[in-house]
């Protein structure tokens, strides 16, 4: 089709239907600016002309953007203009990388022309080769564009081009562990798609590259977690992968010294970033839309549309596993969605399973569904990851009995067959899953599922053998109602072809009763499944159109939602504001407004100029000041403003300018929304006109959550207009507290955390920029708040963390103190590893002493080279050990360590004991002596102190366990040869029972060796002295109980030896 010139684009493909967009105009303007400056000039003259024009910041960004467009649009001048770009850029090419990430690759990669794609890969190669900042984000976005299950020429070319770039720049890649892991995950996954003979060369190139990463950077790849094993299983027949697989199973330490085996990987939950990287942005947007905006029973047209676009070829069947893992791991619906009539996740997964046309892909999809069941841990795993599996089986019993029986058969057979050496642990993991499913009331009972009399006899027998504790006690397992239409044999299940169910409308036919609809989404009594509620169900007169909104996906459960009213925000894309506004009917809301106000709203709806919109909002504020609003007027006005300002509320880019300065911050405050904020903060606190504006903002905040963090940004940014930042900062930002009071909320901490959570999801840069002011101005509610701290840490990168550490060291920021750190540390044990490591960096900056960590020590678990404890706390223990090594041993520290439960697999206590013994040998002996002889003193004046000392006494068996571990693990015998340690061992032996003497016989043997060394010079006289020593030993014990000085006891010992020697001499005479 030929297009007329006006609708063509320099970078993107266009058609009569999809023509030029606003972005094209912006790019053309920037491109023409560059061409007008450099036309007809030599390279040196061009440099001079470009540098001369860089006095203005806006011109700098425009020139960088124009050079980028020229590089992508014209290959003949690409090298020259890239050289120009590196010379004129004053922000390390930040404009370029952010444009690539957020616009060209992130949003419109599929619309790029063929030549532009080739130039884009050429540019990425040059950026990587030069080591430009943030180019790792560009590479990550390109990884997402490699679609799974797609063997088209464009997709294969992209995969090959990117692997070539990464192979050529391997030293650069090794600097970014997350990119290493993401690259490994991506290419392990697409190797399954490149199995055809036509891809032999590419496949070998990918295999060599990814195996090299696995062997050389396995420590980085460990962060992938259990899904690394799943991907390796799918391609285990490749020779190089098979060799790696053998090392993974039989020789794990050859890959990484600290790697204990495949169990360590399987117990690590895979982060959502790896599920996200395997779906293109367009694919992600559509599947999230299906799961969060489409009503149950109306999903068929969307499923057919999605299947035609992404699942219509034999090769695309492998994509189903990626979709299932994404839905399970990333889409965790809010409470509002769970209780609504939105299509539940289990129905979408059931459709993906039932419409699969490949037996191999079907088996892999089942494994993807139940993968988190295999080693499920109730403390570290999320119930939302196992909920879809049980609900698919439970709700498919009637409409799809073949699917239910096939899944039951699969889960029974996977336990002994997945990895036979771990069969017991897998069985325990599946049982843990089922127990928590019942505890959280995901389903009321498993009896209808496991004890159905219509089920095949062999399958029922297999289920009873596998899950005896979940089956009824009766032999036949009677059921109160018929769940199955007809019996299905286990033989038909194992050889089942799901093509028979492809034509079924999965989920729509499941709407058979009101009870099923009402309970399909709900998980009763489950605190862990309460999520922030950030999506509104769409207007439901007719099925909603394909998604145009940016929809948020959450992985981890958050605290129960605050009592703030639910939001009704429609989140449009930047370039679709007009189309969204046309669909919104404001007439019903305008009826409640006065004529003057109604006129302003209508003018605002039609006005596109920013300055004019600001003037209109100022007129609106003046009207509010002159005439107070009633409740109905406020609610309807807030609704109208939220929709008319939707473009300003979701700008699509960071609120914070790229280069932060007073001028750039001032420019960012030109948002029309900020006119309302400015009118509020300029009024004195006692001015009665503040209340109508506050109430308007409260209603807008209820309607659109972005209002809250926009207000926070404005309050801080408005104080950077001059050098007098500190004078007005506190009084200005405290206005945010007035918003909470006006909303009638008492929990200010929950209020601010809610807004900051949304801010972290939408704009992490602004969160890290504004968080110091939050801590400083609202210290009572924020300092020491573990939930807020985790919210901040999960969104930080290394540079933002460094900024916070610097502020803490400068004394301008305090996020917690000694009194609150123990509570934070205990709650952090369930955080991600990176979040915990960031926490310890901040703890070092805050100079938290080791005493604040002692109360948590007994709760910390660790297992070395074993699998007895699955929820280990290596991050906390490692950092506490580093703190202890800087301390000199004291009685309190030693008692706390010895009170820690002894486990042979835990090297924590023995490590620090050995470290202290090497440096403080005598002091350690004296401290251990105090611990062993910890008895109340006879003095009545010290009664209270004796009681507290006795309460903190360490059991003798505990002390001996750790001392024996010190002897065996570290080979410490010279320490036990000290005279003080000999007395300690002798005292301990006298206090031990016969069982304990046998248990610690090797430890007490050190005493016997010392006693045998004394008569060594005259071995022929051994019997006589040994016979005479026993009564003397008893006499010595009696004398020790009577004497007060230990020095006198030491003097008497050699005298007795001398007596024994004299007696021997007289016998010889």
UniProtKB/TrEMBL annotation:
Its main location: cytoplasm. It comes from the Eukaryota. Residues 59-465 form the Integrator complex subunit 3 N-terminal domain. Residues 1040-1049 have a biased composition (Acidic residues). Pfam families: HEAT_Ints3_C, Ints3_N. Residues 530-551, 932-951, 1008-1069 are annotated as: Disordered. It is found in: Cytoplasm; Nucleus. This is SOSS complex subunit A homolog. It comes from Scylla paramamosain. The lineage of its organism: Eukaryota, Metazoa, Ecdysozoa, Arthropoda, Crustacea.
């Amino acid at each position: 089709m030929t297009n007329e010139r006006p609708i063509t684009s320099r970078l993107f493909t266009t058609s009569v239907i999809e023509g030029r967009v606003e972005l094209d105009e912006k790019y053309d303007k920037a491109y023409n600016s560059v061409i007008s400056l450099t036309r007809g000039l030599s390279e040196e003259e061009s440099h001079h002309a470009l540098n001369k024009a860089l006095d203005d910041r806006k011109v700098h960004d425009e020139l960088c953007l124009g050079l980028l467009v020229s590089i992508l649009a014209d290959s003949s001048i690409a090298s020259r203009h890239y050289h120009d770009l590196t010379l004129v850029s004053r922000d390390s090419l930040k404009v370029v990388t952010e444009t690539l990430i957020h616009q060209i690759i992130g949003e419109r990669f599929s619309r790029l022309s063929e030549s532009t794609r080739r130039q884009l890969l050429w540019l990425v190669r040059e950026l990587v080769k030069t080591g430009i900042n943030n180019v790792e984000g560009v590479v990550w976005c390109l990884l997402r564009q490699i679609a799974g299950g797609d063997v088209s020429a464009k997709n294969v070319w992209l995969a090959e081009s990117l692997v070539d770039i990464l192979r050529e720049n391997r030293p650069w890649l090794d600097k970014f562990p997350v990119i290493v892991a993401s690259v490994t995950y991506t290419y392990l996954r697409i190797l399954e798609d490149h199995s055809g003979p036509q891809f032999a060369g590419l496949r070998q190139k990918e295999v060599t590259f990814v195996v090299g990463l696995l062997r050389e950077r396995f420590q980085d790849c460990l962060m992938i977690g259990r899904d690394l094993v799943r991907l390796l299983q799918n391609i285990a027949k490749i020779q190089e992968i098979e060799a790696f697989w053998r090392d993974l199973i039989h020789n794990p330490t050859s890959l990484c010294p600290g790697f204990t085996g495949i169990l360590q990987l399987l117990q690590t939950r895979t982060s959502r970033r790896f599920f996200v990287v395997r779906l293109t942005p367009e694919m992600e947007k559509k599947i999230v839309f299906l799961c969060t905006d489409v009503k149950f029973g109306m999903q068929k047209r969307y499923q057919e549309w999605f299947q035609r676009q992404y699942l219509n070829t034999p090769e695309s069947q492998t994509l189903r596993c990626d979709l299932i893992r994404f839905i399970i791991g990333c889409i965790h619906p809010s409470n509002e969605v769970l209780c609504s009539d939105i299509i539940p996740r289990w129905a979408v997964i059931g459709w993906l399973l039932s419409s699969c046309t490949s037996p191999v892909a079907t088996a892999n999809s089942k494994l993807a569904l139940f993968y988190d069941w295999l080693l499920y841990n109730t403390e570290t795993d999320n119930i939302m990851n196992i909920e879809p599996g049980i609900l698919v089986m439970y709700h498919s019993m009637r409409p799809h009995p073949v699917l239910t029986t096939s899944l039951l058969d699969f889960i029974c057979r996977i336990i002994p067959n997945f990895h036979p050496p771990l069969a017991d642990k897998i069985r325990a993991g599946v049982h843990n899953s089922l127990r928590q499913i019942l505890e959280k009331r995901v389903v009321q009972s498993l009896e209808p599922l496991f004890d159905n009399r219509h089920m095949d006899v062999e399958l029922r027998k297999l289920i009873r053998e596998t899950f005896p504790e979940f089956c009824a006690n009766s032999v036949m397992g009677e059921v109160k109602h018929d769940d199955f239409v007809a019996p299905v044999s286990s033989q038909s299940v194992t050889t089942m072809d799901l093509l028979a169910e492809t034509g079924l409308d999965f989920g729509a036919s499941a709407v058979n009763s009101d009870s099923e609809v009402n309970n399909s989404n709900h998980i009763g009594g489950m605190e862990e499944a309460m999520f922030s509620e950030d999506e509104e169900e769409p207007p439901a007169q007719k099925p909603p159109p394909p998604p145009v909104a940016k929809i948020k996906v959450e992985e981890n459960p958050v605290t129960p939602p605050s009592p703030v009213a639910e939001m009704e925000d429609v989140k449009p894309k930047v370039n679709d504001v007009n189309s969204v506004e046309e669909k919104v009917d404001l007439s019903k809301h305008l009826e409640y407004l006065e004529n003057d106000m109604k006129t302003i709203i209508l003018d605002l709806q039609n006005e596109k100029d920013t300055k004019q919109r600001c003037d209109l909002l100022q007129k609106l504020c003046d009207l509010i000041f002159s005439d107070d609003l009633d409740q109905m007027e406020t609610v309807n006005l807030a609704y109208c403003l939220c929709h008319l300002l939707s473009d300003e509320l979701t700008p699509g880019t960071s609120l914070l300018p790229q280069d932060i300065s007073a001028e750039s911050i001032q420019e960012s405050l030109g948002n029309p929304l900020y006119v309302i904020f400015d009118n509020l903060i300029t009024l004195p606190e006692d001015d009665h006109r503040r209340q109508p504006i506050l109430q308007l903002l409260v209603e807008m905040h209820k309607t659109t959550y972005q209002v809250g963090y926009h207000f926070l940004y404005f309050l801080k940014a408005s104080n950077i207009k001059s050098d007098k930042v500190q004078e007005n900062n506190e009084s200005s930002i405290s206005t945010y507290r007035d918003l909470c009071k006006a909303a009638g909320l008492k929990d200010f901490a929950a209020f601010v955390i809610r807004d900051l959570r949304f801010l972290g999801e939408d704009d992490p840069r602004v969160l890290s920029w504004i968080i110091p002011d939050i801590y400083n101005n609202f210290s009572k509610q924020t300092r020491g708040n573990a939930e807020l701290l985790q919210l901040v840490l999960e969104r930080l990168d290394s540079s933002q963390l460094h900024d916070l550490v610097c502020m803490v060291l400068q004394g301008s920021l305090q996020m917690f103190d000694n009194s609150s750190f123990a509570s934070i540390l205990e709650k952090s044990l369930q955080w991600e590893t990176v979040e915990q490591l960031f926490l310890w960096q901040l703890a070092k900056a805050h100079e938290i002493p080791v005493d604040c960590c002692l109360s948590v020590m007994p709760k910390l678990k660790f297992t070395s080279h074993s699998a007895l404890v699955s929820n280990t706390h290596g991050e906390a223990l490692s950092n506490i050990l580093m703190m202890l090594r800087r301390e000199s041993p004291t009685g309190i520290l030693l008692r706390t360590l010895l009170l820690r439960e002894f486990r042979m697999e835990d090297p924590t206590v023995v490590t620090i004991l050995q470290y202290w013994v090497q440096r403080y040998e005598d002091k350690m002996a004296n401290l251990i002596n105090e611990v062993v002889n910890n008895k109340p003193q006879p003095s009545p004046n010290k009664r209270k102190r004796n009681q507290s000392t006795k309460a903190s006494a360490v059991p003798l068996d505990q002390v001996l366990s750790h001392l024996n571990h010190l002897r065996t693990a570290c080979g410490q015998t010279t320490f036990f040869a000290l005279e003080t340690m000999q007395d300690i061992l002798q005292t301990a032996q006298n206090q031990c029972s016969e069982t304990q003497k046998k248990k610690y016989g090797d430890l007490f043997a050190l005493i016997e060796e010392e006693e045998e060394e004394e008569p060594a010079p005259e071995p022929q006289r051994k019997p006589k002295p040994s016979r005479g020593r026993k009564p003397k030993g008893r006499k010595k014990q009696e004398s020790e109980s009577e004497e007060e000085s230990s020095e006198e006891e030491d003097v008497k010992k050699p005298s007795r030896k001398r007596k024994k020697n004299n007696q021997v001499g007289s016998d010889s005479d």
